[in-house]
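Deviations from the work plan: none for this task. Representative record:
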Amino acid sequence: MAGILVYAEVAEAGPAAIALELLSKARELGQVDAVALGPGAREAAVRLGAYGARRVFLNDDRAFAEYLAEPATDCLAALIQRESPDLILFGFTSDSREVAGRLGARLDVGVISNALDISSAGGGYTAQVPYFGGARVASYRANNHPAIVLVRPKSFEASESGGQAEMVEIEAAIAEGSRRSRISERHDEVSDQVKLEDARIVVAGGRGLGGPENFALVEGLASALGGAAGATRAIVDAGWVPYSFQIGQTGKTVRPGVYIAAGISGAMQHTVGMKGAKVIVAINKDAQAPILKLADLGVVGDVTKILPRLTEAVKAKRGA
Amino acid sequence: MKIAVTVKQVPDPNGTPGLDSDNTLMRDREVVLDPGDEYGIEEALQLKDKAGGEVLLVSMGPDKARDAIRKGLSMGADRGVLISDPQLAGADALLTAKALAAAIRAEAVDLVVCATESYDGSTGMVPPMLAELLGVPQLTFAKQVEVTGQRLTVHRQTEAGYQVLEAELPALITVTAGIAEPRYASLKGIMAARSKEVKVMSLAELAVEPGRPAESVESIEDAAARAAGEIVEDDGTSGVERIMAALTAAKVI
Ligand SMILES: Cc1cc2nc3c(=O)[nH]c(=O)nc-3n(C[C@H](O)[C@H](O)[C@H](O)COP(=O)(O)OP(=O)(O)OC[C@H]3O[C@@H](n4cnc5c(N)ncnc54)[C@H](O)[C@@H]3O)c2cc1C
Ligand SMILES: Nc1ncnc2c1ncn2[C@@H]1O[C@H](COP(=O)(O)O)[C@@H](O)[C@H]1O
């Protein structure tokens, strides 16, 4: 094949956003195929084609959704042996991470993880990876064949190519002993807020709110603006809000038009998940807080006083 | 139950970060046991409290990484293995996983506990690679762990909520921050740790060949900085006014 293979996460609702982002970038780099496994694979294939997949290798065996990582690793390993791609792209998401790591060890090739960008040069691939907590960016040349690279979500804009994919049914190729880590239940929080990763406006709160009850101030402003509320890991770990609110290295990556940081210090592990925002506004009582160096507008002041007044002002203006 | 916890020594997250001119982390920096791994140690100790057995700490790093192991031993772990070899300097995730796998295989453990990602590497690749090399299933992002006989149940944190995962031992788990509040080492624990065994092993002893690293560094540059913004001191009204102006300029209100 000597091309690029994108591991496309799919669900019954369709392909994951990251799959479309990866395809959009990959088609700039060369010929790109996608592989989609599990329930929803067949339905997802059309959209994967519309975003640039030339072929979609698919198998919709339930086992891919029922068991963590191992069935997908088996299937991918068999496909790779047959097609011999030069580059395999994964999203840096919790599900893809599991598969990519196992696959690298299975094929005995190292992987480049947590990348922000990828380019091709001189017949090889180079990935940009945050280094030193994100203050620097390292360019890593991939040494192995195939090169395996995991890219952070929201690194690329998804755009349609208008293409149509050839659908190629493949064997599930699941080994006897690979049905082990069984997903016996799924519990999804239902939330009526705009999806954080898609929101055009994000208001995020940190420890500077002072206590869990003050998170309502963040939610109040977010809802007045028609946006979504987010959080730092500090307050997720403290149990103020669920993990689904977390933005950053180990949480979600957001790229809204406006990001308002309320009582957030601006640790690298947080900013890696939000510094792609178009406009950043930060409210912090410490004029030395690192977040203020990133902000287009920094307000030095008390977040518990400013947020309620700001919410009122927004409501008054929007109502008018 | 015999449990191995992987532990890594990392630059102190609370220290002042520094890079040497060759872009490697400053060598004289403060280093500590990765805070993420303290959760793994705590969880392992709690499992041992319930089911009995042994908690073994395995680390790959320079000789100094002995301090990270020592810290875990003073929390109550039983012994340590340190894989230390000049050939491991700059090891990638696969080589790290191979070294850890070789040391763990020799111990025939029931459960391996890792953190979801290291503070400095943050590749999240060592645990799944380690699981594959050991030939065991992985149950990851655990925010709750239960072992009943040979049966392991994990609540896996997901972006939308959580999943329940089940598997038979032996297995590998990764734990998230907050799964259990890491205990402080008591004075007694610190004293006891001094006489606990820390076995040092080389790559040759583990029969691991350093392969080709995943990547070669081409360059390291400063991340694109955002242009300096405007900073205003809130006087009771100016803060809200300026933010309203910014939101209006951004056309969101
Ligand atoms: C491996 C690893 C992964 C991580 N992943 C993430 C991640 O995904 N996301 C993430 O967010 N973090 C992550 N972290 C944690 C990160 O390093 C920081 O600890 C965290 O982001 C800090 O959260 P904070 O800004 O809410 O708290 P703090 O750092 O405590 O900051 C609170 C801020 O509030 C200000 N403040 C206090 N009172 C007021 C007031 N009344 N009004 C206005 N301002 C006030 C203070 O001046 C301070 O700047 C990770 C850490 C590690 C080690
Ligand atoms: N050198 C190491 N020694 C021991 N454990 C490690 C090492 N590197 C990684 N790990 C383990 O693997 C986890 C994930 O690390 P990483 O893949 O680097 O993000 C860490 O939190 C540790 O538990």
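Chain B is about 30% helix and 30% strand.
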